[in-house]
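hey
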């Protein structure tokens, strides 16, 4: 999966060469350019923010034609963008009710645009490692969830993952 957001911090965006006021337009242009690079033996792209002549770019992604592109955030236009040019939605820190509302909106917009709603993934990003809560996300319409593991060392990570597995998978 390729989860992408357009950023929220003006200074950070502009230091890295982004146009904060037009960050979603720039993000869209970048995604279109990446799709060309990922799906063609020799690709060229001529957009507003990215412009390159025929080039070869390797290695290609394993998924064909490209990895699923999940758009992050909860900005008012994220659902329209997801239906138009994304493969899924990935809100950060949402609760099951927000996921349900988002899934309902995505389904409605997809049907209205002639797209199969089941072609749009919903990923609950940073869900708690709690079986009941993960089930609530699933019932709300999430297809998957990312459980954050915050530890300092490899040994700690393995112990934390074992704990997550015992709480979630048992």
């Amino acid at each position: 999966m390729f989860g992408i957001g357009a950023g929220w911090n003006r200074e950070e965006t502009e230091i890295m060469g982004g146009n904060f006021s037009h960050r979603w337009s720039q993000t869209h242009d970048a995604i279109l350019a990446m799709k060309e690079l990922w799906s063609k033996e020799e690709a060229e792209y001529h957009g507003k923010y990215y412009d390159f002549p025929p080039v070869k770019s390797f290695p290609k992604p394993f998924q064909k034609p490209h990895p699923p592109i999940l758009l992050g955030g909860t900005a008012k236009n994220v659902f329209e963008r997801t239906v138009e040019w994304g493969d899924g939605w990935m809100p950060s820190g949402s609760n099951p009710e927000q996921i349900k509302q988002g899934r309902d909106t995505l389904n409605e917009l997809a049907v209205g645009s002639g797209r199969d709603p089941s072609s749009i993934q919903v990923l609950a990003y940073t869900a708690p490692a709690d079986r009941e809560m993960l089930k609530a996300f699933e019932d709300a319409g999430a297809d998957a969830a990312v459980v954050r593991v915050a530890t300092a060392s490899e040994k700690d990570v393995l112990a934390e993952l074992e704990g997550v597995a015992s709480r979630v998978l048992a």
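The helical segments are 10-15, 23-39, 78-85, 96-112, 131-140, 154-168. The first strand starts at residue 2 and ends at 4.
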